[in-house]
Amino acid sequence: MLVKWIRLTVVDRRGFERGQRKWAGLLGEPGFRGQAGGWSRSRPGVAHLVGFWESRAFYDSFMARSHDRLAAAQTGTYKDPQVRLFEHEFDVKVGFRPAFGDADVLRLAHCQVREDRVDHFVLMQEKVWNPAMAGSPGMLRGMVGRAPGEEFLVLSMWQSAAERGKYRPERVERLALRAQIAADVRAIAGDVVQLEPSWTV
Q1: What is the pLDDT of residue 164?
Q2: For residue 118, what are the contacts with CB-CB under 8 A and spacing of at least 6?
Q3: How far is residue 108 from each of residues 64, 75, 158, measured CA to CA in Å?
Q4: pLDDT value at residue 132
Q5: Where are the alpha helices (DSSP H) in the chain?
Q6: Which end of the chain offers a freer environment for a tag, N or C, measured as fewer CB atoms within 10 Å?
Q7: Which pairs from 13-19 meet CB under 8 Å and 24+ separation?
Q8: Is 27 exposed, middle or buried, given 0-12, 13-18 or 19+ CB atoms closer than 10 A?
Q9: Tens of pLDDT along 92-124?
């Protein structure tokens, strides 16, 4: 499964949200599995979107045919778009599926891993982070995606911000030490996203 992550800064909120409804047109696209998004809880005006496709081939076909027509409705409503593509590596918890009706919050962690530490990073995701997140109240499901250049996206869905808040900084620090995250990762950027139900396709 291919995962597309878009982060952008919205300059015309009303126009952007109106244009976002046009993406319902994705529903007829071959290989399309789902899309959702919302607003950053810590960065005003920043929006995140994640889309899921059965394969890169289906995604490339959509980009060549239909993308520009759907995207036209949001022209001029945002700036600084950053787009990344990841291949699904493994699930966090079990049975990941791109369904968002039961989730309020999405957490994204974008990790740039040192080349000689990739195997260790992946092992720690499976052995340390995955069980800890799977055991957290309100954590529904998630996945780890990988892009060329030792780049990873850890995506998790939560029932509510309050549940996500129970995943406290002290606990995260302990897990980070155990997983030797400082040795594995060159850079990490995270965000917590309040999902907008009207953006879900």
Answers
A1: 53
A2: 150
A3: 28, 25, 11
A4: 81
A5: 13-20, 56-65, 67-71, 118-124, 130-134, 161-165, 169-179, 181-184
A6: N
A7: 13/45, 13/77, 15/74, 15/76, 15/77, 16/47, 16/74, 16/77, 16/78, 17/196, 17/198, 18/73, 19/73, 19/74, 19/77
A8: exposed
A9: 887 899 999 999 999 999 999 999 999 999 988
